[in-house]
Amino acid sequence: MASRFPSIEEFDDGQIEAVQSGTTALDLGLDEDPQADFLSREKATLGADADLFVTENDNALLSGGEQFDSSFPSMAVGNEQVGPGGTVTGSAEPYLPGALNTNAYHGISSEPEEEPEPVREWRERQRLEIEARDKVSEVRKSETIEKAQAAIDDFYENYNLKRDKAVEETRREAQEFLDSRENTVAGGTSWERIAKLVDLSDKGARSGSDKTRFREMLLSLRKDEKAPGASGF
Q1: 227: domain range?
Q2: How far apart (Å, rounded) are the C-alpha atoms in residues 192 and 218?
Q3: Which end of the chain has fewer CB atoms surrounding its CB within 10 Å, N or C?
Q4: Is 207 part of a structural domain of the chain?
C-alpha cells in the first residue's frame, strides 16, 4: 500500500496526514517494464498456444530489465563502488562494455596505398617539364652572362682605342704646331715668314674687298726679295 496526499476537502476538515491507498501508480505496477507486462498478459490470454508464438526477441525483452539492473545497480542497495550521496568511489579506469573487436580493423593495412597509374604518369610529366624549364633557364642565363661580358670587353677595347687615337692626334698636332712656329721664325724673307702666319686663301672673300687687296699685296711682297723690310731688322 502507498500513501497519498489528502484532498482539499480533507485538508479543510483537518486531515493533514498522508492517506494509505492501493490505487496509486506505484500500486498499479506502472513502474514495471511495459513490454514485459504486455507479453505476460498475451501469454495469459493465449494459454497453451502461447508457445507457438514465442520468438527470440521475447527472451531479449524479458531479460532487458535484468541486464539494465546489472549494468546500472540501484543506489538504494549496497554498492561498494558508490559512496554516500551517489559519489563513485571505484576504480578511475574507463568502463569497457566488452572486449574490443579487433577483427573490424583486421582488413586495414598499415602499408601506404600505392598511387594510381594516372597520378604517377602526371608526376613524371611534371618532373620532366620542370627539368626542361631549368635547362632552358640555365642556357639563357649563360648566354646573357656571355653577352654582358662581351659588351664590357668591347666597351673597354673601344675606349682604349679611342683614347690612344686621341693621344696620338694631340701629339701630332702639337708637333706640327712646334714645327710651324720654328718655320715662321727661320728661313726666307720677313714677308715669307709673315705669310706663313696669315691665311692667304681666298675662301669667303669678296672680290674688291680690303681683305682681298691685302692678300694680293702680301703675296707680292713675299715673292719680291728686294721689297722693303724683306731682309728683316
Answers
A1: 187-233
A2: 9
A3: C
A4: yes
Helices (H), the chain: 8-12, 34-46, 56-62, 64-71, 117-185, 190-197, 210-223
Domain boundary among 123, 151, 174: 174
DSSP 3-state of 88: strand
φ, ψ for residue 127, nearest 5 deg: -65, -40
110 in any annotated domain: no
Q: What is the pLDDT along the chain (233 residues), one digit of tens a residue?
A: 455 666 677 766 666 565 555 444 444 444 556 667 777 787 777 776 666 666 766 666 556 555 555 665 555 555 555 555 555 555 555 555 554 455 555 555 566 788 899 999 999 999 999 999 999 999 999 999 999 999 999 999 999 999 999 999 999 999 988 887 776 666 677 777 777 777 667 666 566 677 788 888 888 887 777 777 667 65
Counting the structural domains of the chain, the total is 2
Q: Is the separation of the CB atoms in 62 and 36 below 8 Å?
A: yes
Please report whether residue 191 resides in a domain: yes
> Could you give phi then psi for residue 96, rounded to 5 degrees?
-110, 110
